[in-house]
Specification:
Elements (H helix, E strand, L loop, with lengths): L1 H20 L7 H7 L7 H24 L1 E8 L5 H11 L36 E6 L2 E6 L9 H9 L2 E7 L6 H12 L4 E6 L8 H11 L4 E3 L1 E4 L7 E4 L4 E6 L5 E5 L6 H18 L1 H8 L6 H13 L4 E5 L8 H11 L8 E5 L5 E5 L8 E10 L2 E10 L1 E3 L3 E4 L5 E3 L2 E6 L2 E4 L2 E3 L3 E5 L8 E3 L5 E2 L10 E7 L5 H14 L4 E4 L6 E5 L2 H15 L3 E3 L3 E2 L2 E4 L3 E9 L6 E11 L8 E5 L11 H12 L12 E9 L7 H16 L4 E15 L3 H10 L3 E8 L2 E9 L6 H8 L5 E11 L2 H17 L1
Parallel strand pairs: 1-3, 1-4, 4-5, 5-11, 6-11, 33-34
Antiparallel strand pairs: 2-3, 7-8, 8-9, 9-10, 12-13, 12-24, 14-15, 14-23, 15-22, 16-21, 17-18, 17-23, 19-20, 19-22, 25-27, 25-28, 25-29, 26-27, 30-35, 31-32, 32-34, 35-37, 35-38, 36-37
Helix pairs in contact: 8-9, 8-10, 12-13, 14-15
Length: 757
């Protein structure tokens, strides 16, 4: 190794000496006259060389970006995704032998080392696994398996440029396949479909293809067709190049291309025509050739499929059996041929200096650095942060700015995840996925070089709407318990942890029941912490409905310095739509109260508003005006006025006719039409208000406003009402006033707990 480096350095030295000595001598003026180039300046050659260098550099960037794919693999549970990923890693040389998934316990396969395999989608431990296929770099990104629509899911899908949707040739399009596909459509991810398990009894790829067209509304056609099915499954016919492919060798690593068997030739021609027809419907260039009855060349068809797939107008369907090692390599070729490279996908950032105005990113390494931290991992050496670079270049030792916090941090170590090891790199450019060590940040933070203030996701984080009391079962696991909560908070900004001052319990808050359930489950599996969870608690608010006046004197004399403070003023509700939740107006004229005591009065009112007298929840939308008061030269103090404000608030609050506000959720339901009556009846029973009713193919889509307090356990109820075919998404809409009967019920329940204590 030392000898080689010494040899290469001496060769470099020799080359530089030679090039220095062979530099052309400046031409004489006579030579210039003869050639007719009168205005030659010697530095023009230098600038031309610089331009050429710049051009070469640009083409190098473009070439390297064109040979890059960021893909996700997602599917319904048990469609053979783990087995497919195992084969992809084997053929790309990432692992050197294949282990099977043994039964349901998941022992054996490389990817099944994670316990959460059954719940989580893809079972790669690292967020982006890097493998190489035919000189192309493929990053397989971990797409979240859970379908709680949190910020985390959104971020992982932002990072994908393309995806493979795996379908089972026996089970067909199942409920999770529909959900995953809907998410990909929402985030505009181009995709390929792979019909797996053609070796199983009852395999019918054409049935699955029709299901994808009807249930997923895919405009799709097969680019391959099987040679035999079930136990007679021997190979595939490539309908683009019209060749038969057979997979030989112990693990199917040798591909043999032959002519199509005579008995399948007619069917293959018919299926190819079907493919050409489907693509020409969405691609004008191919349509011209197809309508003028010209022979369609394989290269033209290939390009047309690529154009249609990238524009998300077409989904090419591949086939195979990952378990029997057939069809995986052509699928990898399909990823390279039909899925986009980073420059072919448009990405938008939000400019924070212009009120979150959308900015189109060029995706070139020449622009300013914009990178998104999309996943955090607890590594052996501390926090490992995965970055997707959207624009610019990041170098080891650079200073980068976290736009969300405004902190400037240095990049101490830059790595690329390769197999289970990390490969240290000096720099990375747009389109790549890298990991950095030693950068303390939260998931979803955007990093720039400081010249721009762009964020990749909106910085406005919705307020949590639901809380649970949580505590570790055993006292020994306290360290892991707090470590888990800290990590989850960094990963997901919608997940909050707090301490209840009254019961001194740990309270976790989030966007819904399923959201919090997932974190309790992850704590158990990833940190081995058994946790007990209290009853879910809705974050109610209180407010006032009319104006009232207060005049309160706080006077206390007990020997020594006493307490004296008098406050006079009014309390009224803020007009609807006002941006603030609490307003304090100092309307004092003269020096009735010395000005240094006014902040203490404001602090007292704020403190009192943290807990209303109806059910002990925070009071919102109030305006307090301080008109007059009185002070004592000796006995008045900040504490006296603060207490005067607290007691004045409590005294006046009852006169303002307080009401309780509850969080109302915007619920979107999707279920087969035959269950419409049952589901609608149940929404009405939960005091929901239906605001929209649409039909999508065989499904009914209902939009409703439902109080969160009535939505507990709804996922289970909906499943049982719709035989598991219904699904719903829920997001916070606003806080609205509760009805009088509910208010009485809540107040009585609160009083009962207070007297019980």
């Amino acid at each position: 190794m030392a000898a080689r480096s010494a040899r290469s350095s001496s060769a470099r030295l020799l080359y530089s000496l030679c090039t220095a000595s062979i530099s052309p001598a400046p031409r004489t003026s006579t030579a210039a006259l003869l050639t007719g180039n009168f205005n030659i300046r010697y530095f023009s050659a230098g600038s031309a060389a610089a331009a050429r260098l710049r051009e070469e550099k640009d083409t190098w960037w473009k070439d390297s970006l064109q040979k890059l794919r960021n893909i996700g693999i997602s599917a319904h549970i048990d469609s053979g995704k783990t087995t497919l990923t195992e084969r992809v890693l084997f053929y790309t040389g990432r692992i050197h032998e294949i282990h099977e998934v043994r039964g349901k316990d998941g022992v054996g396969a490389k990817m099944d080392s994670m316990d959460l395999e059954r719940e989580k989608g893809i079972t790669i431990q690292s967020a982006a696994t890097y493998c190489t296929w035919k000189d192309y770099q493929v990053n397989i990104i971990d797409t979240p398996g859970h379908v709680d629509f949190t910020i985390e899911v959104e971020r992982a899908l932002r990072v994908l440029d393309g995806a493979i949707l795996v379908l089972c040739s026996v089970g067909g399009v199942q409920s999770q396949s529909i959900t995953v596909d809907r998410q990909m459509r929402r985030y505009e991810v181009p995709r390929l479909a792979f019909i797996n398990k053609l070796d199983r009894m009852g395999a019918d790829p054409w049935k699955v293809l029709n299901q994808a067209r009807t249930k997923l509304r895919h405009h799709s056609a097969a680019v391959q067709m099987p040679i035999g099915l079930e136990e007679d499954f021997k190979g595939l016919i490539d309908l683009v190049n019209m060749k038969a492919c057979y997979f030989h060798g112990s693990s199917g690593e040798t591909i043999v291309s032959e002519d199509i068997p005579a008995d399948l030739e007619a069917l293959a021609l018919e299926k190819r025509r079907e493919l050409v027809e489907a693509v020409s419907e969405v691609d004008d260039k191919l349509a011209e050739a197809f309508l003028s009855d010209e022979p369609i060349l394989a290269a033209d068809l290939d390009e047309a499929i690529r154009r249609a797939t990238i524009s998300r107008k077409f989904v090419p369907v591949f086939m195979g059996s990952a378990f029997k090692n057939k069809g995986v390599q052509p699928l990898l070729d399909g990823v390279l041929s039909y899925l986009p490279c980073p420059t072919e996908v448009s990405n938008q950032a939000l400019d924070q200096s212009k009120d979150e105005e959308k900015v189109e990113l060029s995706g070139s390494p020449a622009g300013p650095l914009v990178a998104l931290a999309f996943k955090l991992e607890e590594g052996r050496f501390g926090q490992l942060t995965y970055l997707r670079i959207y624009e610019g270049v990041i170098k080891k030792g650079d200073f980068i700015v976290n736009v969300n916090t405004g902190k400037k941090v240095k990049v101490p170590r830059l790595v690329r995840m390769h197999s289970n090891e990390m490969e240290d790199i000096q720099q990375a450019h747009a389109g790549q996925i890298v990991a950095v060590f030693g950068v303390d940040c939260a998931s979803g933070d955007t990093f720039t070089d400081g010249s721009v203030r762009y964020t990749m996701t909106s910085m406005s984080v919705p307020e949590p709407v639901m809380s649970l009391a949580i505590s570790a079962v055993s006292k020994d696991s306290g360290g892991n318990f707090s470590k888990a909560l800290n990590r989850f908070q960094r990963e997901d900004p919608t997940f909050r942890v707090g301490l209840d001052p009254e019961s001194s319990q740990t309270i976790i808050s989030g966007m819904g029941e399923l959201h919090l359930d997932i974190y309790v489950e992850r704590m158990k599996r990833e940190y081995k912490v058994e946790a007990t969870v209290g009853k879910p608690r809705v974050n109610f608010r209180e407010t006032i409905t009319q104006r009232a006046e207060f005049d309160y004197l706080h006077k206390k004399q007990s020997g020594g310095q006493g307490q004296y403070g008098r406050v006079t003023g009014f309390m009224e509700p803020l007009p609807p739509g006002s941006g603030t939740k609490f307003e304090f107006d100092n309307m004092l004229v003269g020096q009735a109260i010395p000005s240094n005591f006014v902040p203490a009065i404001e602090k007292g009112f704020k403190e009192a508003a943290n807990s209303g007298s109806l059910i002990g929840h925070p009071v919102e939308n109030i305006r307090i005006g301080l008109i007059d008061g009185a002070a004592h030269t000796v006995d008045s103090s900040e504490l006296a006025f603060k207490l005067a404000a607290i007691y004045a608030f409590r005294q006046c609050y009852e006169l303002c006719k307080p009401v309780i506000l509850e969080p109302v959720m915007l619920v979107e339901l999707k279920f087969p039409t035959e269950f419409q009556g049952t589901v609608t009846g149940d929404i009405n029973k939960r005091k929901g208000m239906i605001v929209g009713n649409d039909q999508e193919a065989d499904d009914c889509v209902i939009t409703a406003h439902v109080p969160l307090n009535n939505m507990f356990g709804y996922s289970t109820a909906l499943r049982s009402m719709t035989q598991g075919k219904g699904e719903f998404t829920m997001e916070y809409l606003e806080h609205m006033q509760v009805s009088q009967d509910v208010q009485t019920q809540l107040v009585n329940a609160y009083k009962a707990t207070r007297t019980g204590e």
